[in-house]
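My current task is to audit a protein record that another person submitted. I have pasted the whole thing underneath without changing anything:
***
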Amino acid sequence: MVLDNEQNKPHDALARILADDMDEVNTLIQKRMASKHAPRIPEVTAHLVNAGGKRLRPMLTLAAAHMCGYQGDHHIRLAATVEFIHTATLLHDDVVDESGQRRGRPTANLLWDNKSSVLVGDYLFSRSFQLMVETGSLRVLDVLANASATIAEGEVLQLTAAQDVNTTEETYLQVVRGKTAALFSAATQVGGIISTADEEICQALYDYGDALGIAFQIADDLLDVVGDAKSIGKNVGDDFRERKLTLPLIKAIAAGGEHDRVFWTRTIAKGDQGEGDLEHAINLMHTTGAIEATRTDALDWSNKAQQSLSLLPDSELKTILQGLAIYVVSRVS
């Protein structure tokens, strides 16, 4: 699939259109991450918030509100809320995963300690709920509270399924909906809710975020197998080395024979990996059809995301969001 330069980076197009709103969001984030009594809180938070992320999730909230004709200022609070939830989960994830680097910089838990990362993450979750309440919408509070619970549930489910070669695609999808898609779908849905859009529009926005998040994660899984190290920013095969049950691996295990299962049990379940195992694993993913099947799934979810927006009136933002759904799978299609 070839994208022209205008479509190549739709998140950049979003950033240009929403620049004024994002300035307000960033100002609010800086204000609300301050702490009068605990200066370590803004130190830790600023390290991650200012690390150069794309701010995609808050932009999705702003875009959804604009597409629904919203005229107030609560979308600014909700966009900041979404970013605080996202940042809190990153702080917690780095502790759980024992990560030493994020976005090319040392993680907060490495620069400070695990206790600081966990507690500052908790602080940001609390701040996010304060911002939700300020909108005066119980429906918004319900959606974002449910999303926060789903994210935590997905993290725990991933822990229990880790290195388990019997993990099914259904379990994988539950994990992805928790870790990735839950905040995407909540981010878009609350943009419609705060605009008092019709229920079918709010549902369409939820469906878009859900499908976009799933397509994004599946494509990321696939890039770990078929991508280029320079373009993906990490070594090919890192998921295999870390014994992660990604979709192409799950499909390969399910489609393979008993001899293949012995290999997967040794390398994934037991962690006994040696020279040539990565190459053999990638070969099995190809020969079982797992790579192509995973690519088909990614494209299907991308198409679902695009189609979800069909109920919304045509606009530049709608076109960009549909382009975003194409973009997230463009490197594997």
User: Anything to note?
Assistant: The chain has 18 helices and two strands.
